[in-house]
Write a structure and sequence with these properties.
3-stranded antiparallel β-sheet, binds zinc ion, 2 domains, alpha+beta
Length: 136
Amino acid sequence: MDRTQVKLKLTSNPEVLSALNHVGALKEDKNGKGKYLAIQFDAFEYRFYPDVEIVVPSAVAEGLYRGSGVLIGDAMSGTQQPGLEVVEKWELGEQEPSKKASKTTCSVCGEEQGTVKALVAHMATHADEGEEEEGK
Ligand SMILES: [Zn+2]
């Protein structure tokens, strides 16, 4: 089973975007959401809009990544560049790296406190709650 999850997004490289546009790979959304990159994989069309991230299993991600390639420059000296970017990867059952708690995230309620000082003060409020409950 494919356990690796991959988060992909449309590249932000303007050179690659203009090349994709040039070859007609970028399609205009009928609902006015802008241009998107459509890639067929496994009888399914994946649409990548700017600033929209898509999470897929790694096997699908590899296929989409390969399918997103576009030639930059001329046929002789140009290079293939992927039209997609890998944002992050993680194993199924793990938390997404971007959603992982930082050092200043409350371990009780998961709220981000920003600074250690604020976290300490915040944790104290949980401690009070706990004591009250135990006393009941
Ligand atoms: Zn908290």
